[in-house]
Amino acid sequence: MRSKLGVFAAVAFTCLSSVAFAGARPPSAPSGFDHPPTDDEIRSRLREICTSLVVADGKKADVAGRRCGCYSKGVMKALTQGERDEMRVTGKFSPSAQPKAKAFMATCRING
Question: How does 22-42 read in b/e, with b if 16+ C-beta sit within 10 Å?
Fold first, then answer.
């Protein structure tokens, strides 16, 4: 279970880098963003990544959707404006945001 959480966190952090807007350059494909992503776009991308991983882990799509909705909404609500801005620029959770993301993985039973 712990290794699954670690894998999910690593994949989510890596995949979010495709959402990031680095400096003055648009991100490379396949993120589809040619602008700094909004909070709603980040939340949506977190949910997409989470859902695909949870479904691949053998859960039904409706279960994955509920759990990942809980996760993506909870994480975005828990992050400070500075943490969201850092994610927007770097595409990664900041060191202070990582524990919050991990806590919501447990709360929302992402791998449970």
Answer: eeeeebeeebebeebbeeebb
